[in-house]
Amino acid sequence: MGDQIENVLHETRSFPPSAEFRADARIKTDAVYERMLRESLDNPESFWGRVAREIPWMKPFERVLDWSKAPFAQWFVGGKLNASVVCVDQHVNSVRSGKRAIIFEGEPGDRRTLTYTELQLEVCRFANALKARGIKRGDRVAIYMPMIPEVVVAMLACARIGAAHSVVFGGFSAVALRDRIKDGGCTAVVTADGSFRRGAVLALKPQVDEALTECPDVHAVFVVQRAKNQISWLARRDVWWHEACAVAPSECAPEAMDSEDLLFLLYTSGSTGKPKGIVHTTGGYLVGTYLSTQMVFDLRDEDVYWCTADVGWITGHSYVVYGPLANGATVMLYEGAPNTPHAGRFWELIERHRINIFYTAPTAIRSFMRWGDEHVTKYDLSSLRLLGSVGEPINPEAWIWYRKMIGKELCPIVDTWWQTETGSIMITPLPGVTTTKPGSATRPFFGVDAAIVDEQGVELGPNEGGFLVIRKPWPSMLRGIWGDSERYIETYWKKFGGRFYFAGDGARRDEHGCFWIVGRIDDVIKVSGHRFSSMEVESALVSHESIVEAAVVARPDELTGQAICAFVTLGPGKSPSPELRASIDAHVVKEIGKVARPAEVRFSEALPKTRSGKIMRRLLRDIAAGVETVGDTSTLDDYSVLAKLRQHEE
Ligand code: WTA
């Protein structure tokens, strides 16, 4: 952490918005920005009440915020609405009815567009198909799908009938899917036969079949025919999407949902081994994603907008689906990998579809840099107006490359900090007014009372590194952890006595009020922006027959930001070998998914522990990163362990 702070401390370049961009921006003067910011912080109820009235309600809310049961917030109390009406119907009933909602391109190059009117039809049909299989208001539906239009339709169809969705990233294994289905109490699954990924077919249905051998409550599986790969079929449970929709009525009245009714669960990793189901409700989440999409991306009606995140993550929920559609935007959806069939695939898509707004992750940007500028310069990127970054700290070098090579020094870059838990963007430039600095997410968004505090919760001065906290509730905040209120309080609120939301990130604020996020201070690891906990990977490792003990830490990685480094101790009679390494990898892939495969496995006879038996991860982190241990090692039980571990590096 110290090193990274050092690095960004030396970053002094800054980029004010250009006069051209400012002239047409939604917020173009500091005075307007300051006025809105002040109102959002000093008088949040009037600020958010006004924003909330811009989306359609079926019954108006009576109160903007009820914080009396803190830390369980209630926003827009008494109001009723339906997310599919906010994202679809309101536009169908407007001049946007024939506007493109979704532009889709598959990895093999197949293309499809859906206007808002067409999207409404698909949503209603699938909503009726869900109902025909007995799925109803209050149920939970797991979605395990590729990036195809049907995934958006499935999410909105759930919302339409008042069922919550729980989207599970398609890169997770059957075991991970099973755990999430069970924890969320899902009774139906929506999937596809397979998907096109990196020139091959990635099968999905077989993972669902395997997961469901232990999920007796799931009585319906809807399958989109996408890759036409061979799959097995359980007639009483499985149903083809196209067959179910063909016989479904094309109209479906939306359920009037309470503002605080569950919209979705999304599982994410924390400090412990068990992923937690983050709870997001309807009204506040929609208001938060609606406003942030509009302001942060400076969205205009004629824009074509592309966020490259998978819907399996929060960025896909908030900035592929709900935020952009609530604004009536045209959203690009791409199924495949960025380098299939060639390394210029994204730029080709930007040229072809005249993309104006492009939002991606630092890991992707670093890959593009590595693949070479020639793949970029071949294409006409002049449609681009604004660039965004999310998911992990962006190193200044990548930021500058992004600005020069993709943005041609004309597009502002919004580096947006937020989390699955926050639901929407929390710290970010506003492109018409904020002077950006490579590596800084700059300033808190409207209504976000962010601060840097020390262990005691005392606010720190400029450039002092500490804990990032949020001191006031915000509309799109998580409402809890599914089935575990205690853990919600314990994880996010206990550290500072219930006064602040504790994000788990370390950060500093510079003398101009800009935030520099350093990264997690807990055991959360971010690999290519995907979130894992050390313990979750450790428990996968120790369930391998040859491993008796494991410790997992993050080490810095030039491409993926962080990489998973595992230290393992083998059982008696077992010894390291390439075969063993391969079987360990395969085991982690089976338990969690390919995304969690360790970059490095180090075999060691023992792990460094304190006298009370706690593994000293700090030491392992230093060893993994190949740096000298500078911290206190006086609690280390057996010094020879450390020496041996270092020897193994040779
Ligand atoms: C990290 C992703 C630095 C951070 C939306 C946070 C970032 C975690 C940034 C949440 C950023 C996200 N700069 N770090 N712009 N954006 N992070 O839940 O550590 O997948 O706590 O949500 O990602 O990850 P999650």
In short:
This protein is α/β, with parallel strands linked by helices and 650 residues long. The protein contains 21 helices and 30 strands.
- Helix content range: 25-40%
Return the domain count. Answer: 2
CATH architecture of the largest domain: 3-Layer(aba) Sandwich
Structural class: alpha/beta
Structure notes:
By secondary structure, the protein is α/β, with parallel strands linked by helices. The chain folds into two domains: 481 residues, Rossmann fold; 129 residues, GMP Synthetase, Chain A, domain 3 (2-Layer Sandwich). The protein has 21 helices and 30 strands. The protein has an eight-stranded mixed β-sheet with strand order 12-11-8-6-7-14-15-23, with helices on both faces. The chain has a seven-stranded mixed β-sheet with strand order 5-4-17-16-18-19-20, sandwiched between helices. Helix 12 links the parallel strand 16 and strand 17. The longest helix has 17 residues. The two termini are 25 Å apart. The N terminus is likely disordered. Bound molecules: 5'-O-[(S)-ethoxy(hydroxy)phosphoryl]adenosine (WTA). The site of 5'-O-[(S)-ethoxy(hydroxy)phosphoryl]adenosine has 23 residues, from helix 12, strand 20, strand 24 and strand 25.
